[in-house]
Amino acid sequence: MTQERLAARVEMSVPQVSKIENGKQGYRQEALQALAEALNCEPADLLRPPPASWEDELRVYIAKLDSDRAARALRILQTAFGEAA
């Protein structure tokens, strides 16, 4: 999502969104909540440092799945990478 679209969704200016994203401006809890809602995530997700790699990010998503969905995701990935399931 672009900063322009996000700013419009949370009724902030683009420079405000940019400064918050880059840690150059503080924020209130209400703003954090609105940003998280607009991005379809939890406020805590916005405060965590980014994963070190795409593999780490993938592990984060899979960890949120129930066991059946995690198993399906693993099979899809194994198929995508040409590995036997």
General description of the model:
- With 85 residues, this protein is an all-alpha fold.
- Helix content is 65%, strand content 0%.
- Helix 1 packs across helix 2.
- The longest helix has 14 residues, at 67-80.
- The N and C termini lie far apart (34 Å).
Total number of β-strand segments? Answer: 0
CA distance, first residue to last residue? 34 Å
Oligomer: single chain
Report the principal-axis shape: elongated
Sequence stretches where pLDDT stays below 50 over 5 or more residues: none
Structural class: mainly alpha
Percentage of residues assigned to helices: 55-70%
How would a crystallographer describe the biggest sheet? Answer: none
Order of SSEs: HHHHHH
Mean pLDDT: 89
Highlighted features:
6 helices; 85 residues; mainly alpha
Q: TL;DR?
A:
The chain has 85 residues and is mainly alpha-helical. It has helices at 3-10, 14-21, 29-38, 43-47, 54-63, 67-80.
Indicate the topology.
Layout: H1 3-10, H2 14-21, H3 29-38, H4 43-47, H5 54-63, H6 67-80
Helix pairs in contact: 1-2
